[in-house]
Queue: 4 jobs
Job 1
Amino acid sequence: MSALRVMRPEETVAVLDRHRDLFDDSTRSRVFAVAAPLGLLAFTAFAVWWLALPFDQILQGLTSLAKFVALMFPPSTGGHLDLLVKAMGETLAIAFLGTLIATVAAFPISFLAASNTTPHPIIRFVVRRCLDTIRSVDALIWALVFVGVVGLGPFAGILAIAVSDTGALGKLFSEAIESADERTRESVLASGGTGLLAVRFGLLPQVLPIIAGQVLYFIESNVRSATIIGIVGAGGIGLQLSEQIRTYDFDQVAFAVIMILVTVAIIDWVSGKLRFAIIGRRPVV
Amino acid sequence: MNYRDVMPSSIPIVSQARLEVLVADYQRVVQQRRRQSLLVLAILAVLVLLAARFGEVDLRNLIDNISNFTSYFSRIMPKLSAAHFGADVADWYWNITGWLKLLLDTILIAYLATLIGAVGALATAPLAAANLAPSGTLRWTIKRIFEFCRTVPDLVFALMFVAAFGLGPLAGILAIAIHTFGTLGKLFIEALENIDMKPVESVRSTGSRFIETVRFGALPQVMSTFASYTLLRFEINVRSGSVVGMVGAGGIGQDLFVAIRKFYYTDVSAILLMIIVCVAVIDLVTERVRHRLSGRDIRR
């Protein structure tokens, strides 16, 4: 080949004709392409107007933010490293125990909520709606409620994470059960096994690794959530953090944030390794 | 030809000696797995005990006070009677206009925050995707920034912004936007790293600059995935938007916080019900849209 051949005009037309569907957008999609950004823009304008955002405060706010950031260096423990370490330990304990309790609670519930194992569709529907309701209340609100029940401290945080994650994990587990291969269960039934045996030997071996991966992932993400529930007094490093922000001790804020970042990185690394060992490189959720 | 000539009439019987070997093998594997499970359980038990000490778990306290928890739910239930149902509901939702306004505030906070976060992530993620990034250092820096933004809890940002910008929705929007920026950035990078590189290379071979490569080679493959992630995030942000109010950053959270703390029981259930219904509706709508979006990517 010496050179690229230039297409003749009629050839160009022929090629265009052959791939008409790629070039001819329907009127509907054209209208959508214009209307969607306009709609987003209009809604944005409405939102800014409705919320009456104080744009004149932005500059002033940014200067005070810059001041805060300047105050963060150098980070300091404020002389109570032991308190911070203990709070971080509490945070980890809250995430770990909360997720574990949620797992134990969600596991049996998820069989009721999965279409292939539920005793009755009505039960499935009711259980699903209950899980949705639990899920749509934030962990922080549950924490507020539990502080009222068991008093201030990390125990309230554990219960809050446990309850709110029962909703999320129940849904995820039931989806894992639904997507399991039916044939192994049928083969257990065909060889004379009871329904319970079919679940034990036909279903669980498929589902357990997926569930383990999801639980590890939730422990990871709960370490993040557990850092904030302290703000309402439910234990963990959030209490120190919110107090330090309120008293403008930004060097200590910086130290606590660095502690959180390092801890989360370590947990991510460990649970990533464990997850890889259990299920391989597969997306979890 | 008789089928007996081609098919064996019975399953061949394994010899006793062979069977014993197989059974022994099976037993060994089962034993090994049992030992493994026991070890995992033991480690788990130790961790639970350790965590229980740190977490000040007090089961006696829980048992003593669990009645508070159950009675809490009966206390927040509104007193509705069939006789004057309308009046009872009106009494329960005595502040319906005020709460609806706050709920709209919450949705708009979530909307603006999602928009800012998504636009920011869209603009920076291509610079940090391994297969597109023009520079290694820039890629590393952006990935660390994403990590920082999603690891620091949004409420911590909200507290700081309330201190800087004053009480109100602005602090909430910025806090949730930063968090959204971090999470969506990570998801966008993952989507971009899984694209088909052939279109990208063909655009590059025409001598395009970075921005044109991304626009015409990469984005058409991932736009609907991006839109789907963003919608999912919007739903999550409505939930967070109902919480940032607790630290004074706007939305319905403030009223909910006051209601819980001051034991205005029926107000708690009224506001919670509004949030739950609102989240459920948004969940339904975005799920519809996401189902239509999925599979619309131009791939392969």
Job 2
Amino acid sequence: MSEMNQERFEDLKDAYVLDALPEEERRSFEDYLAAHPERQAEVDELGAVAGLLAFSPHEQEPSPTLRARVMEVVEAEAEPRHAQRRSLWSSIADFLSVRSLAFGAAAVLLIGLLSWNLLLQGQMQDLQGQVRDEQAQVQELQGQVQDAQAQRQVQQSQTIELAGSWADQGAEAEVASINENRVILVADNMPSVPDEKTCQIWVIKGDVPEPSGLFQPDGNMTATPITNSIEEADAVAVTVEPAGGSDQPTSDPVLLAEL
Amino acid sequence: MADRGREYLVLADEDLISLVENGDADAFATLYDRHSRAAFSLAYRMMGERQASEDLAQDAFLKVWRNAASYRAERGSVRTWILSIVHNRGIDQLRSHASRRRTQDKIEASAPRSQPSEAFAETWRNSQRDQVREALNTLPSEQLKILELAYFSGYTHVEISELLSLPLGTVKGRMRLGLKKIRTHFESRGAAVPR
């Protein structure tokens, strides 16, 4: 393998950011980079371009069991972390209890300093908490403004009502185009579906249904982006599918709108 | 607990990561709910089947939980960081099973592909994902194929050269042109490359 130099660095940097260098070349490239830190920013910038590929795959819904599996481990590990913090305080208490009286005064002083420190930290955290609360309120207000704007846009936009068996049972659903690029399905009063099922939106062109979004009715109003263009579509439908969605509908539509 | 979960919904990813670093499972759950779909989609694109993709996504999210302190905001967004973990671990797994996949990929690589147009045909404009797809849609299929074989399938440039029976210089050139074209796509619209 030829020696790494500026010319070779230029030749290999694209493959490096795509993770496409054989192991030995990669190590050699990284050694060169470590010796020339002024090139790091250039590599980071190129790496950001390569990293965009991660955003491109078609959306797939993970199953609810994945979340359950991950959270089971996380919650099990979260508890020992709290326990570790508790045992640290226990150790300090033990340490203080077995020292001789000769260290008593020093311990009292230490506790005093610690308490003062904790008091100051507590005050600081309270202030930080207040700042966070204020920020949250600002965000909430911004959210309300955005909601109001979105609602106004929806009101100004075209809406198409969906019919079908669920509508007969009292469900209300509309396809709303907020602008030429954003189309959402707004649904309310939908029947609940079991955890292992999900509602899937289909944009139908000719006889071809295209999977166009998933949502889980939760008793509240939901707004779900329709991920395929409805321009030149013949209909929009909703079916109940296995969790994670299907490539093709496996049941009859519960809601349908002809466009 | 549920109230805290609701409060976390308004926090930025960077704030949640700080809480996760301190062992806050609710903050982690909020991050998971925000990014699990993107992470799983990437995993599925790399592994090609559901169970392996879920295993990869689980592995990556547990790394997020255990190594939240290693997140560096200056290197990019939390979402990009999570996706990079999925990608790196995916590449490791693909390379450890490389021999099993080689034959199948060789067949796919030599067959006429409908994937680029099918995969990136939709023109969405209102999100980062849409912009990226739009940029990828502008690439000639031979450049896109090489980027995909490297990024999603874990092949080195030498392996791609063998797989497609192309000179190594051509493979490197297409990688360079493909990445350059993506960057130019964003710059021509006055937008920075999302990080």
Job 3
Amino acid sequence: MNLDGLLRAKLRLVKVIMKILSRYVFEGVLTLFAVLFFTTIILLVSGAPPFAAYYHIFKGSLGSWIKLGQVIQVWIPLTLCAAGLLYTFRIGLWNIGVEGQVMLGAVFTTAVLRIDAAKSMPMLFIGLSFLAGISGGAIWAIVAGVLKTKGGVNEIFAGLGLNFVGQGIILWLIFGPWRRPGIASMSGTELFPQELWLPIFPAFRLSPVGLVLALSALVLTALLLRYTHMGLNLKAIGNNRDAAYLFGLKPDRYMIIAMIFAGGFAGLAGSIQVAGVYHRLLPAISSNYGYLALLVVMLANYNVWITPLVAFFFACLNVGSIQLPMMLELDSSLSGVIQGTLVLATLAVYSWRIRGKMSGGDAAT
Amino acid sequence: MTELDLTILFAGVVAGAAPIVLATLGETVTEKAGIINLSLDGTILLSAMAAFVVALETNNILLGFAFAALVGGIVAAIVAFFSIYLNQSQVAVGFVLTLMTRDLAYFLGNSYSRLQGPQVVPLPVPLLKDIPFFGQIFFNQNLLVYFSLAMIIFCWWYMYRTPLGLQLRSVGENPRASYARGINPKKLQMMYSICGGLLVGLAGATFSLSVKPGWGRPQGAEGVGWIALVLVIFGGWNPIKAAMGAYLFSFLQVIGIYCQGWLPSVPAQVFQVAPFPLMIFTLLVMSLAQKESVVNWAEDHIRMKSILAFFSGSVPTSLGKPFRQD
């Protein structure tokens, strides 16, 4: 009798677990299938062999240690930007200006590394340049934040406008004051002397400094958001601004704080791109990683620990699709199509489940 | 001599403004019904690519326009569907689509880059084009320019002078109340989102088949979608004021080209990004003009009051907050 009851309870537990599992697996499979279906159609429309394209993306991203190193190289700035966005999303801000914050970080870093004395004290100046990069990104974020809180300008338009301004500043520097002796070109400023390059793992051609910084940013973000008053307050304001205000919290101040974190991390990403990857300032220094990070965080459902995983997958797609122009004469923007479709499909499937729940709740009441 | 220059200048402004006017009108219609379609920047590129490719392949410009409008309508329908029927954030979906449609345009248009394609031919209006000064500016253009001019009047008339327009505004202001009056807000919002999307699609086609003919990466229409979104706010959600903003923007663009010639010492990059700080500044002025302290101060200054009135526009009350039935 007792055994029978235990067995029945066990069975019920297994059933519930199976139900949850099958739902998630089913939803995951459904989402992936939808994305694959859409992408395959796009590839067929453009007259390309779909399987060859997928194969090249896979082989181009995880096919060798060098490629994996490149993926991680993309993962670092993507994760840094995404970590910063967790703060701004939590308080309900759409920090679209993260792209420009990366650019300003890169500009400030370059400015410090171009100082003549830098060569003689490389360690000191690399350190300083990173601090400069963080401040650069933070300053750009504060501008957007103040425009929002004091000026009443929607942060989407403020941030977007500042992105274009940042791009203008970089182009102006590369073709103006910082142009290479001889000929100014889209290939960027002059390379820094070797002493000012971040050290790398030779096998991966990857800078451990960047990796350590990105991982620390993640851990720091997880701790701050979960275990501090600041994290709680950000969430409170994001969920109900008026209630938080009545509770004595100052939404404006916290918005600026969130923007400083987002801008600081983005600026750091810019520093790493300059000092660790390209060793110079390029027009495309931010490589759209800021915009992409917004998708990463959305797909991770604003979760700190899922964010790096999604960022890794997106980095694979980005690096892998570089093969497409070489191998199949396709544009590498296919990665963006896959990423966007993935987010949309996930949103659709997710909201379908919520919808089912809501109507179920309605029926019960 | 100066007169001739002015005619050319203003004719250029009117021609260059045509796609911006269409995109701005489309977004005004959509937002007036309560839906924000943030995907404009990508939609314009995707529809520009679609128009160019279809027109080139079929050698039929009209088909190119039809296809572009279809693309614009579909993207808008996705935004509206996610918001109205799936309860998702319009901003989130719109932003994802901004990036995705742009990448899709670059991907599918890759093999059509820098090809010579068909273009819209000028079609002067007989008699009207002989009106001194204005004739050359408004009636020595192509069909698209006339269409964009007509759409300004039509959108305003439809919104403010017809019963259907009243319904359109009511679902954007108070969907609950319009529901009580027997209107289906979901259906109307869906419909007007698609209508707005059609216009945005036509704007894209206007770029690739007339204003900046051809396709490439970059096409040259990048960033215009964001400008159009801001112009809707600038116009206070009024089609005529928004269109005026589009002409003002086009005017500044043309002036910028002249300035580059006059001031060769200023780098070209400064002119390229100049619209964007201007865009932020405009939004800042508009927002400050509506602050209580400023409004109170203006009460005592009659002239200031009328200036403020120009900058004040009423946001559709339910913009971005879709109707929930419970």
Job 4
Amino acid sequence: MTLTRRGFIGGALGSAAAAATAEAGTVRHFEGHPGRYGLLHDTTLCVGCRSCEAACKEVNGLPPVAEPLDDPAVFDSVRRTTDTSLTVVNRYLEADGDRAPVYRKLQCMHCNEPCCATVCPCHAFEKTPEGPVLYHPELCMGCRYCVMACPYYALAYEYEDPLTPKVMRCTMCYDRILEGKQPGCAEACPMGAITFGRREDLIRVARERIRKFPDRYVDHIFGEHEFGGTSWLVLSGVPFGQLDLEEGLTTEPLPAIATSYLGVVPLVITIYPGLLLGMYAFSKRREAVSAAEREESVARALAAAEEVTQQKLASAADRAAKDKQKAIDMAVKKALAEAQKGGE
Amino acid sequence: MTDVTMDAASPTIWGRSGLLTPFNVIAGIILAGGAAILGIRFTQGLAATTNLSHTYPWGLWIGFDVMSGVALAAGGFVTSSAVYLFGMKEYKPIVRAALLTGFLGYFLVVLGLLADLGRPWRLPYPFIKSAGPTSPLFEVALCVALYLTVLFIESTPAVFEWLGLKWWRKLVGSMTIALTILGLILSTMHQSTLGAMYMVAPTRLHPLWYSSHIPVHFFVSAVAAGLAMVIVEGMISHRAFHHQVQISQDRFASINFGLAKGAAVTLGVYFAIKMVGLATEDEWQLLATGWGAWFLVELLGFVLLPCLLFTVAYRERRLTLARVAAVITVIGIMLNRFNITFVAFNWNLPAGQSYVPSWMEIWVTVAFITFAVVVFRWIANRMPIMYEHPDWKGVH
């Protein structure tokens, strides 16, 4: 496994420990592998010729573009990437006075910290030191969490394939990069709207263009910092929101947002057993105490009843004894009286 | 009591006319249709059977079978914890049915997942081949796998009593407390982490449903759903298996009022934390939008309303009202999970791209539920679920 921030975080420690490490690791920051590659799409230079689309299909061995390249009708609707079109060009603004129509190319942005990789339960994604995010179909179980998670709607799935469907997305032509070639789209672009190079160089190039032509560009490089930054960078002459690129996005990487809760998990595992056994002990004790109290009060009631009985018995015996004495006294008195009478 | 047991164990319960009862015929048709659709799914792909798209990778099979299924199966851990850990012994007569419902609910979750996964035979990959421990789904998968095992073991006492395996029955009986604690830990973790799965989508899920507290929302709403589902399940099973029920109508009603009270409190807490979410993320102004109206339908109609109905039902001892509230709560949980999975998801994309389940997705979901009902019936007709086995009265 290559040492990416994600790899650094993940390790084999389990999600729980991983999140804890992420928390603890906030004082350190991994800038990403130096010298990694990226691409710059200058939308002010793009004319919507879709040569990149055609080239992408060719280098990836996908069926050729369905709509003819010179057919402007394709721009009447906004398209997205699919399992057979890993990049598409959309027209976001029609020509307006001096300004030419505005086009933007869509594809996987190859995030610095890809959330597709973080949310994959099978670890099927890998951020390479060279920059491209790779997908390993041989590890994928097809849950499509990555497709759901991508904030750029860049991932597609082979729903037509019944048994061996794969996630489909731009690979930044990783194999071509290793061979020392440019990605297919960059090589095919006749307008120089797509520039391939080292990411830090591309940021310098983009800054330079903005500095030189302040009227031509919005002073922002989309992808430099959004959600922790992307390998693909976009320059625009109109507000990015008009190109369906959300403005004002946080610089916090999505993986950090997505896993922030997982730090609670080890606490649940460690606190619950003690807490619950405590509650169990409370309820057991409450039962035991109430049973003991019941027993005691029964015993007390019995004792009280016993005492009353004893008292009653004693008083009865006493009364009986008195009665007897009285009877004896009476008898004696009577006998004496009779004796006296007899004596007279 | 003895003749009840004997009657329950006899196969004549399948109906006076043998196997061809109306219930069996309808269930058979639904199951056969579901099997046929699954046949299409595994020969022609998800595209031929579902309305899933690149933009909506999760639909009904995740939104109902997994997200709602897990929440509605929460009754198992809620009632077993109440009885075994917190000493609320008066609920003991319903624990077995709740645990069995929980087990079948989780079984349904796995079935739904197997239909939905692109390559379902790779379901064990995260544990045996390539682990992705940074994924909330990894934690959910691990917890669900373990909890399904726990629920299975917790359901075996009825099987061992039925088969007369005394040694085994004593063994699982001695594990009750440990299993209940494990079940509560695993449930707390995966019920909340199901919500945490959506934390990755702050831009794609509408801010009224997205929250940094969403794991807590999921957990608390699952407790309410579990309690409501126990009431609904009792309403149906006590009618279907009334000849097996040993406790009096009064006692059963008072158990339901206790559950209603619990559900009222839980829904009240849930409503409160939803309000806290609105306040801390300062989203009041969003309530005035169309999405806000839909959010209020869910929050007022399916959380606050059943909360109040449960309260009235408890105070005035009205069983039917408690059942109405329970049904509303169950529908409300499904509505919430649907909203999060595909209604308020991709909310900022242009209209016309939204996901509506295909009839085949709905049929398969209904078939899975039917399957669970058939299995519940088969088990409850044979084993001591609705009543206590005379040899094991009052034992854990």
